[in-house]
Design brief:
The complex is a heterodimer.
Chain A: H1 2-20, H2 25-32, E1 37-38, H3 41-63, H4 82-98, H5 102-110, H6 114-135
Helix pairs in contact in A: 5-6
Chain B: E1 2-3, H1 10-31, H2 37-44, H3 52-72, H4 84-101, H5 107-114, H6 118-141
Helix pairs in contact in B: 2-3, 5-6
Classes of the chains: A mainly alpha, B mainly alpha.
C-alpha cells in the first residue's frame, strides 16, 4: 500500500512539473536568465510548493509518525560545509547549461525525448562516478 | 530588470508548484520520506537496501506523468536548445553535483526549505546563483 502512495506521489509530482512549466528547459533557462529578459514564473513554482510544504512538514514532524504509523526517515543534517557548497555549485552549472534538473529530466524521458534520455544517462553516470570515487576514499 | 511578460505564467506555475508541494506531503505522510529526486534516483540502484521499492514506485509515477497528462490535455512540447554534447556534460554535472551536495531543486529547494533548513537554504542560494552565472555567460558572453 505504501508503494501505491509513493507511485501516486511521483505521478502528482510529475504532473506538477508539467503544469508549472518546470519540465520545459527553455522555461527554466528563461528563469535563470536573470540578467537578460527574465521570466520569473519559476519563483511561483517554488513559492507554491513551499507554501504547501511548510504546513505539511510542520504537521508530520510534530506527529513523529506517518499517517500509516510508520517512522519518518528525514535528514537532520545541519552542517553547511565545503562539500554542500561545492556540490551545489556544480549542480547549478549543469542545471543552467541544459535547463534540466533531475525531476524534469525524468519527466522528459517519460515523454520519449531522446535528448531527455541522453541527459538522464549522463546524470546516472555522474552519480555512479561519485559512488565509485567515494568507495575508493 | 527586464521582465519577459509575454512568457510569464504566474498562475499555472503556482498551480504546478502547489501540486509539487502536495506530492511531497503525500510521500512524507505515507512513507515518511523526503521527495528529493536526486536522492531517490541514487538509492534505487542500491538493491541491498530494504527500502528501494518505494523509490521505484515514485520514479515510475514520475515517468508515467506525461502519458497520464496527455490522456486529458495536449502535452506541452518541451524546448531543449542544448546540444548533445551540452546535455551529456550538463547531465554528468547534475548527477555528480547533486550527490556531493546531497540534494537538488526538490530535496533542498522544496523539502529542505519547507522544513526551514538553513543548510538547504545555503544549497539553494548556491545552485541558483551558479545557474544565473552560467546562463549569463551562455546568453551574453559566449553567444
Amino acid at each position: 500500500m505504501k508503494n501505491i502512495y509513493a507511485l501516486l506521489a511521483g505521478l502528482i509530482f510529475g504532473l506538477g512539473l508539467i503544469v508549472s512549466g518546470m519540465a520545459n528547459p527553455e522555461k527554466v533557462i528563461g528563469f535563470l536568465n536573470i540578467f537578460g529578459r527574465w521570466d520569473p514564473s519559476l519563483a511561483f513554482v517554488m513559492g507554491g510548493a513551499i507554501f504547501v510544504g511548510v504546513f505539511s512538514f510542520k504537521y508530520i514532524v510534530k506527529r513523529e509518525k506517518t499517517l500509516l504509523g510508520g517512522s519518518l526517515h528525514l535528514s537532520n543534517e545541519k552542517s553547511i560545509n565545503k562539500r554542500l557548497i561545492f556540490g551545489s555549485l556544480i549542480f547549478g552549472l549543469g542545471w543552467g547549461v541544459a535547463g534540466f534538473c533531475p525531476g524534469p529530466a525524468l519527466v522528459s524521458l517519460g515523454m520519449g525525448s531522446l535528448k531527455g534520455a541522453l541527459f538522464v544517462i549522463a546524470m546516472l553516470a555522474g552519480m555512479l562516478t561519485f559512488k565509485l570515487v567515494q568507495k575508493n576514499n | 530588470m527586464d521582465i519577459n511578460w509575454a512568457v510569464f505564467t504566474p498562475w499555472s506555475s503556482l498551480l504546478g508548484g502547489i501540486m509539487i508541494g502536495l506530492a511531497s506531503a503525500l510521500l512524507v505522510f505515507t512513507n515518511g520520506r523526503s521527495a528529493g529526486i536526486s536522492g531517490i534516483v541514487a538509492g534505487v540502484f542500491n538493491f541491498k537496501r530494504p527500502d528501494w521499492s518505494w523509490r521505484l514506485a515514485f520514479l515510475l509515477g514520475l515517468l508515467v506523468a506525461p502519458v497520464s497528462y496527455s490522456l486529458f490535455f495536449a502535452l506541452p512540447e518541451p524546448v531543449i536548445e542544448s546540444s548533445m554534447v551540452g546535455l551529456v556534460v550538463a547531465g554528468f554535472l547534475v548527477g555528480i553535483g547533486t550527490r556531493i551536495g546531497g540534494g537538488c531543486t526538490s530535496g533542498h529547494g522544496v523539502v529542505g526549505l519547507s522544513r526551514l533548513s538553513i543548510r538547504s537554504l545555503a544549497a539553494t542560494i548556491t545552485f541558483m546563483v551558479s545557474g544565473f552565472v552560467i546562463v549569463y555567460f551562455m546568453k551574453h558572453v559566449f553567444s
